[in-house]
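Issue 218. Parser rejects a valid record. Input:
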Amino acid sequence: MEKKIEGNITPLLSREALIYQALLCGLRDYVNKNNFPGVLLGLSGGIDSALVLALAVDALGASRVLAVLMPSRYTAGMSGEDAKQQAEAMQVSHITLSIEPAFKALLTTLAPCFQGLAPDTTEENLQARIRGVLLMALSNKSGNMLLCTSNKSETAVGYSTLYGDMAGGFAVLKDVLKTTVYALAHYRNTLSPVIPQRVLTRAPSAELAANQTDQDSLPDYAVLDSIITAYMEDNLGADEIIAKGYKAEDVMKVIKLIKRN
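Output the parser choked on:
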């Protein structure tokens, strides 16, 4: 007589839970197998760094994570408040290093060369690169690895700064689209509410210029991510993507950005 095997079947995890566990595994393995004592990251008060901080603490423990706040003249007060609130909620050591002195010094140095030229992305990139320099200095001095907080959406279209926010030893969100970043952040808060609600609801911004939001330069992230997926993963051409109902100008802009990047 055939013996039956009986028992409870463990339900499958949700999509967000599965992705979160995969990111935890990848980060934990990379740090531990390469014998890093810990990690550090720039904590801006935005959604990407908030999720990376949560992942770092969940993967390694709070004692092995350092959060670095680097405000500038364009940093909103709420950004600093939210960053500190999350760091304290997760019991992570955090320090504040203003980039303003270094930014002023570089602008003064470059003033003769920039005379008569209007401010543009050059000044924005300067700020990101100052932050990269500070974070890498802390990494070199401590031996802790710097985590990059850029996501797949930004990286695909070049909405990031070479030698700036692209600096780091491991990009936790390198294959995570912005819309999924939000979904993962909401999921993490169901486990314990560590990411401030305002981070989840306010318009995303690089805060490198006055009153700046990501959608000043990019389509809405739901649209952007769909076009990126169709073009990069489904191998659809521009006409095929437009036929799905997306605006031709959005499709052509995103494809142009991907190719240029």
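Fixed in the parser; the record now loads. The chain has a mean pLDDT of 93.
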